[in-house]
Write a structure and sequence with these properties.
The complex is a heterodimer of chains A (154) and B (149).
Chain A lengths: L19 H12 L5 H4 L10 H9 L3 H9 L4 H11 L5 H13 L7 H10 L11 H8 L4 H4 L6
Chain B lengths: L19 H12 L14 H10 L3 H9 L4 H12 L4 H13 L7 H10 L10 H8 L4 H4 L6
Classes of the chains: A mainly alpha (154), B mainly alpha (149).
Chain lengths: 154, 149
């Protein structure tokens, strides 16, 4: 999948969290009819292992509620503040661990096989280093987090 | 540092958690005067501290509880009474964070230094867990220990 206009990198942080801003982008793009079909199956928290679900469970809010809040308008920071206010309080340490957990998924864990399948499905990505699910997402959308060592900027 | 009798592998789980059983071992060994000097500066710090923060218990209080006696499971249950029970997903996140520490994060520089200090260059060490296991004469990479968690 090439770059999707309006869909930011997984690494882009809102507040203390990676991925959260991308989840908001998906909500807004979907509402505007501009979220590509390939992304719609993993939208929301209906599946245990998708990143939207992991992010919502970490925050302790339902995706449907966050969607309503997001589409009512307001900034990313306001959406996150709403989630923190209505969900599970999270310490800096918990946010730090969650960020690293998300960014390293697919390396030495039960998602490694899924990652290898996605790499094969995507044609192998010759010349690229893909070791995590996030590497794959970024690479698939035309970015190169490994060359940039994007994890050092989180 | 070769194998330390009474100190379990970092991958050995107690309840739903890696590492924590090792913290209990360290407390008991220290009290018995059997914890090697190399391990004493980090007792209650580093990963021990991360485990206590995760369980929301104070290390000194944990130490007292361990030395009062009881099985590992009882100590863990005490921690959950004190700090509240974590969800399965929180435990999954914590385990993964711990097992992967040193790879693509701020722990990398410390890891590189320890590998050099221990003369373990050439070993396929990617994480702090790898380092500790190799340092104690186990090989988690050959065993793919992370797949058995």
């Amino acid at each position: 999948m090439p770059h999707v206009p309006g869909l930011r990198s997984v690494y882009a942080k809102v507040g203390r969290l990676v991925y959260f801003g991308r989840m908001l982008d998906k909500i807004r793009l979907h509402a505007a009819g501009r979220l590509p079909a390939e992304y719609q199956a993993n939208l929301g928290d209906g599946q245990m292992l998708v990143l939207d679900g992991r992010c919502c469970r970490f925050l302790g809010v339902a995706h449907a509620d966050l969607r309503g809040q997001t589409l009512a308008g307001g900034t990313d920071e306001a959406a996150l503040a709403w989630a923190h206010a209505h969900g599970t309080p999270r310490s800096d340490e918990e946010c730090h661990m969650w960020n690293r957990f998300i960014l390293k998924l697919g390396w030495r864990d039960e998602r490694s096989a899924v990652l290898q399948q996605r790499i094969r499905d995507g044609g192998g990505y010759p010349g690229r280093v893909i070791e995590t699910l996030v590497d794959h997402i970024e690479c698939d959308e035309g970015r190169d987090p490994v060359a940039e060592r994007a994890w050092e900027k989180v | 540092m070769p194998h330390v009798p009474g100190l379990r592998s970092i991958y050995a789980k107690l309840g739903r958690l890696v590492y924590f059983g090792r913290t209990l071992d360290k407390v008991r060994l220290h009290a018995a005067g059997k914890l090697p000097a190399d391990y004493q500066p980090n007792l209650g710090k580093g990963f021990d501290a991360r485990a206590c923060v995760f369980l929301r218990v104070d290390f000194a209080a944990l130490r007292d509880r361990v030395l009062a006696g009881g099985a590992d499971d009882e100590i863990l249950a005490w921690c959950e009474e004190q700090g509240g029970r974590r969800t399965d997903e929180e435990c999954e996140i914590w385990n993964a964070f711990m097992c992967k520490r040193g790879w693509r994060d701020a722990g990398r520089e410390v890891l590189a230094r320890r590998i050099k200090e221990s003369g373990l260059e050439g070993k396929p060490i990617e994480t702090m867990f790898d380092y500790i296991e190799f340092d104690e004469s186990r090989d988690p990479v050959a065993e793919r220990a992370w797949e058995k968690i």
